[in-house]
Amino acid sequence: METIETTYTYEQLDDNAKEKVKAWWCEHGIWDDWYEDTYERFKEEGYALGFVIDKMNFTGFYSQGDGACWEGQVDVATWLKTHTEDSIARDAWCALIAEDFCDKHFSIHTRSNHYSHSNTMTCVGWDWVDVDCSDVENSNHYLTKPSIFEGMQYKDLHNLIRSTDFSYTDPNDIEQAAFESAKDYADELYKQLREEYEYLTSEASLIEACEANDWKFNEEGEMV
What we know:
Layout: H1 15-28, H2 36-49, E1 51-59, E2 67-75, H3 76-83, H4 88-98, E3 105-110, E4 121-123, H5 136-139, H6 154-162, H7 171-200, H8 203-213
Antiparallel strand pairs: 1-2, 2-3, 3-4
Helix pairs in contact: 2-7, 3-4, 4-6
């Protein structure tokens, strides 16, 4: 007489069998490129914040040194517009950037390292005109593009910025703050990747997959 094996849904299994299925799910249930959607979302959202991301890496999730990092550029004017309050000083900085007082971008690299976290990120120096030097060439830079600052000298506009209570009155201040912000963005990427991974490997995600695929198991928790 043929013996028909009894099959069970995941919910019908006992606790020991469920643990076996959950262990299998954690190891095999997540696809290799599960993080790609998060990567793409972060690239798009980062671009709007002034982060032009070319490459992202992460290691995770529960060991010392785990984290995320990225390489690319910081669009300084966009960063100022999205990370500081509207003010005459911010408008002045954006005008100076548009007039080539300084580079429009500075680069973000990562050190070659076994780890991928925000502290592996490095900032390539942001170049700007030395408005305090005494030579004729640099002391006579004027703004020429249409704005409320048109016709002013670089140095006079920079002095105007320094006379305000704006948080970043010196180029070094902007560079450091934008770099720290870029590292914070990498930390946020890691946080969201970890949350996504934890959901994808969770029992709730397993149950959804079981129901969607009509998976059945034997009494020991093996798929049949």
